[in-house]
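User: I'm designing a mutation panel for Glycoside hydrolase family 16 protein and want to avoid disrupting the core. Could you give me a predicted structure to guide residue selection? Please restate the sequence first so the numbering is unambiguous.

Assistant: Good idea. Sequence first, for numbering, then the predicted C-alpha cells:
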Amino acid sequence: MDRFQTGSATATLAERTSGSSDHDEIEPVPPARNPFSTPVGYNSPYGFGSARGSSTGFQQAQPPTYFHSRRIKKGELERPWLGKKDPKEKWVTIIPLIGIFVGLALSGFLIYEGLQGVTNHVYCPVLDEDFSGADLNSKVWTREVEVGGYGNGQFEETTNTNENSYVKDGMLYIKPTLQDESLINNNNVLNLLQDGSCTATDWYACVAVTNTTNGTIINPVKSARLNTKVGASIKYGRVEVVAQLPAGDWMWPAIWMLPVNNTYGDWPASGEIDIMEARGNNYTYPQGGNNIVSSTLHWGPDADNDAWWQNNVKREALHTTYSSGFHTFGLEWSEKYIFSYIDTRLLQVLYTNFNKPFWQKGKFPVSDTNGTRLVDPWSQTGHDSTPFDQDFYLILNVAVGSTNGWFDDGVASKPWVDASPSAKHDFWNARNQWYPTWQKSGEMIIKSVKMWQQKGYNGCTG
C-alpha cells in the first residue's frame, strides 16, 4: 500500500517504487488548464491559493480584498468658479427669466384680447316654454295641417290632433303613427279643405288621393309639425331647444327656422336656418342615423341654385346617440355672424361670418337651366347678412321619408326609390320592416323652448 504523509505535497519516488510491481502506480498527469476557468491566484487548484500537490490538502481561505477608494480628498480639487466670477455669467440666468416673463405677458395679452373679442349681447326674452300646461299654448304654437310633402316629397300627413302632438308630464311629444289602412287599401280622397283644417295656401297640399289602379295612395303615416309664426319670432338673437331625438327608421326630425315674410322672394331666396336635422335610423346607417346631427343655411336665387352645401356641418355624438338622452340645440345670431351649437356655446356645429354679400359667396351661374338670367335678390339692402336680416320663426317637426335625396336610394335596404311614382306605396308595403323600429323611442320629446331677441331690434332695449 502507498504511504502518504498528511499535509505533504507528494510521496517520495522510492516510496512509490518500493514493494511489488503489481502495486506500482503512475502519478497522473495534471489535466490541461481550462482557459475559461478561474484565473490563477483565485483559489485555483493550480494556483497559489491551493494546498499544493495534495488531493486531500486543506485549502485555506484567501484574505479579503479591500476596496481602495479613489475619492479626491477635500481641498485637493480646484474650484476656479469660486474665485473671481465672470460678470457675463449672470446673463445665463437673466436671459431665460426675461424670456419666461415675456412669454407669460404675451400669453396674458392674447387671452385678454380673446376675451375682449367674445361678444356678449344683451337680450330680451321672447319665449320661455316649459310645457307646464295641459296642452300647447295656442297663442304661441300653430299645428300645421297638410298632405303636400312640404316641397321634399315627405310621406307624412301632419295633423292637429293629440295622436301626433301632445303635452305629457311637462314635455311636448311629436309622435309619428301609421295611417288608417282603410284610406290606403281602397279608393279614397282626403280633402282637408272640406273641414277647413288645412293650413297650406296651395290646394294640392290639402288634398291626397288613393287610386288602387295607378298605385298612388294617401300619405302612409301621420305626424306633426308645429311653429311659432304667430306667437314668437326674432331678428337676431338666440334660440335654445332641449330635446331628445326619436329612434325609428326613415324618420327625419328637425328644429329649424323660416322667415315670417318672404322679403326677398320664394324659398330659398329669403333664407332658411336649420339648427338641427337628423335621421331616426340607428348608428349603422351609412349617411348617419340618430348618432349624427347637422346644421345648415339655405340661400340662393331659386330652388335650383340653393347654396346650402357651403354651410352644412355635421356633429357626431360621442359614444352615444342623440336619441338616448336630452341635449340642448342652440343658435346664436347677430349682424356679424350666425352659429349653432350643442349643449354649450363652446361646442359649435355651424359657424358662418357675415363678412361679404351672400351673392358673392354663392358664385352663382349667369343664368339658370332655362337660360333665364339670375338676378341678385339681396343687392338692395347693402347688408352682408341679407337674407338673414329679417324676422324668423321656429319650427319643430318629425317628417317621415322623402323623395328629395335626404335618404339615398339603394342604401340600407331603403324600401322605395325617390323617382318612382309609387314611392309612398312601396314605403307602405314595407311597414313590417320599419314600423317595429318605432316602438321603443319613436317620438321627439321636447323639454323646453327658449327664444331671445338681441338688444336694438324689435323693440328690445335691454
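For picking mutation sites, this is relevant: The longest strand covers residues 444-454. Residues 123-454 form a domain with the Jelly Rolls fold (CATH 2.60.120.200).
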